[in-house]
Amino acid sequence: MPKGSLGFRWGEEGTWNLRMEQADGGGPIDPRLSMLGVHDEVLKLKLPYFDDAGSHVMERAVPVKRIQSGGKTRYVTNVYDLVLAKYGVDRGLADDAGADAGAGGEPKPFTPAWQEGITGVDRGTVVQIAREFARNAVDTKGRSMVIMGAGINHWYNSDVIYRAIINLVMMTGCQGVNGGGWAHYVGQEKLRPAEGWQTIAFARDWTGPARLQNGTSFFYFATDQWRYEETGTQGLVTPLAGKPRYDHAADYNVMAARLGWLPSYPQFNRNSIELYKDAEQAGARTKEEIGAYVAGRLKDRSLRFSIESPDDPENYPRVLFVWRANLISSSGKGHEYFLKHLLGAKNGLLNDDSVSFRPREIDWQAQAPEGKLDLMVNLDFRMAGTALYSDVVLPAATWYEKSDLSSTDMHPFVHPFNPAISPQWESRSDWDIFRELARAFSDMAARQFDAPQKDIVATPLLHDSPDELAQPHGIVRDWSKGECEPVPGKTMPHIHVVERDYAAVYEKMISLGPLVKDKPIGTKGISWSAAEEYDKLKGMLGVNRRQGLAQGCPDLSTDRNVAEAILTLSSTTNGKMAVRAWESLEKKTNLHLKDLAEERSEECFTFEEITSRLKTVITSPAFSGSEKGGRRYSPFTTNVERLIPWRTLTGRQQFYIDHELLREFGETLATFKPTLKPTPFHPNSKRPVEGGKEIVLNYMTPHSKWSIHSMYYDSLPMLTLFRGGPTIWLNNEDAADTKIADNDWIECFNRNGVVVARAVVSHRIPRGIAFMYHAQDRHINVPGTPISQTRGGTHNSPTRIHVKPTHMIGGYAQLSYGFNYYGPTGNQRDLNVIIRKLQEVDWLED
After folding, report:
1. Would residue 721 count as lying in a domain?
2. What is the CATH number of the domain that holds 700?
3. 806 in a domain, yes or no?
4. Which residues contact 132 (CB under 8 A, 6 or more apart)?
5. Is residue 287 included in any domain, yes or no?
6. How confident is the model at residue 97 (pLDDT cuts 50, 70, 90)?
7. Does some domain include residue 817?
8. How would residue 488 be classed by pLDDT, with cut points 50, 70 and 90?
9. Average pLDDT of 226-248?
10. What's the predicted TM-score (pTM) here?
11. 683 contact partners, CB below 8 Å, separation of at least 6
12. Partners of 499 in the beta sheet?
């Protein structure tokens, strides 16, 4: 058996590497790429494929070896052979795989001729580009690159598109090569000083774990978009799997929460502090006993996950703080659902939940709640859409009024923000705002609680931990169906007991806690000591001199001190930490690695230093590239050159993933899946009365060319330069067909909501598509529409969340939850709208 797979990562130290050696010490190995040429016979393999007509099965030939196992004859082939069979490469196996067309003249799946009918790109052009890409990779030793971004990232099936591109660069030897591979550009953030940031952000210096959740799932349920599903899963699965496990996507999310694949908060239909008291009264004392108590109550259903009844008043969120985000008007897919169900505000939602799919695992309330939140607080320096809908707006400082840090994957630096002026009027820096909130909260808590409270926290099976081994062979076992027992941290979420000293929140926030010194710090499954840095920070920052549990701890009362602590505790900005991190990985891999950082072991970035001059970050195992010797960062170079395994099931990048849900959806191999085809309105529900000529178009919301998200779009110079308000771009021929002229006011609507905007008519927009550049808020120059009897919405009014079940897999190697790493995407491309000319412009001013 070759080394490097997941079991070696969490087994005996020193065996997790990519050396071509047998794990038992039996010497070198030379794995065979293909069975072709040594095969015993050729078998026909059934493979799924998908197109606009639905899901189908094709047969492709593969070379196999026969082996005897358990008294049975079994057939073995290689993943390489599976991939070539999937792509239809002619290998002389007498299955006509390489022909463009079958016997009936129809194009064969995955051939250049087949794609031509889908993309419109000439088959000869595809062949030419493919050969040029591969030839360049050969000639340059891997310097062929695919640059991609929101053009594929925001589609429902973006994951299989990404996998197809990764296949391409793996096949041509471009991964882990400077100038080669794939480069992803959607939101260019890269948290370079990761360890220091997460230690302070998640209070790991004092306690743990924090409740962290993927936002898409949270808002899918909090805004009741799950109630309006128009697309069942039946058409998305392979015929080889038969029926899907569930028809409704929300049921998969409930299963994911139940099995510990994804986090889900609020967590139970019982207050977590009261639940601890229940467990204690039942005789549970240790963490294991309390976990068993919770598991038992979940099994007998005397306790339930909140996600199983998200519209029950005891289960939905009541207070929401929005910080550094225009959630309501910019990032929230399904704007009108947010207004109706989360905020209880006037809205333009045209959808009807009476005609939608009904889930099996979720309680259905006859009447959906409207206005779930009791309080929404917004920290912002602009009165953008979220601030306008908030109960309380706390004015925040801008980037030139505070001390802060920023980093990106566009270049290898950490940026400091320095105040040029003090925060204006009542505004404060983010840290100062939360510090004062913590002070007020602690004062209130001291009157509310006599002592610290014990809190039961459920957390998912985590990536970069032994939790990745929770599902042998990717087989789903659901304890709620009697397929196994509920075991915390194995077949269900972990159950933790966390002491909450609410009266001490303020003291803890302004001080770096002792766990930094007493316990290892780390990231990505490795850890090391930061005790030396903890003592160093006492000298750098001073200490908390107030009486209490934080006395003598490093002082974090100012944003500048927090930034210094982050830089000191991170392996990309502290050379000693980087060397220790590499030494930790050396123990796990039995590879020599610390030389990647030794040349910079005496460097420790300070805020003053990075203000005075740019400094490239230090090579760290927190990331997979190398900056040693001034090299430019490129991902996976340390995997390829230093034989560090990828953090996957096999320790390699994978063409094939065998999880049961991927088999169900026909996605064990990269494949083509068409876009979803939701109609603007359900055939059994009402739609607005037709008014003039109409056209149905695919609705896109690309990143804006004239703003940074919702900033600057509404500044007077930009409004003066371009139309003075919201705009939608149309193809000139589509516009002519509907009698729409450039600069006309138009209505753009579907079941999710309606937008009113000026038409920008251009031949540069493809036919059949409408562009509304994202983050166009609704607070300037937006007339009303008779469709909703209110003003037009934002760019997200026609959108809604579509969650994909395969994004919910957890507890299985790389398919395991990690904060800001994994979970359903917030895609919004797979939808259509009706566009027509607005008959009368009404500013609703009477």
Report:
1. yes
2. 2.40.40.20
3. yes
4. none
5. no
6. low
7. yes
8. very high
9. 94
10. 0.96
11. none
12. 454
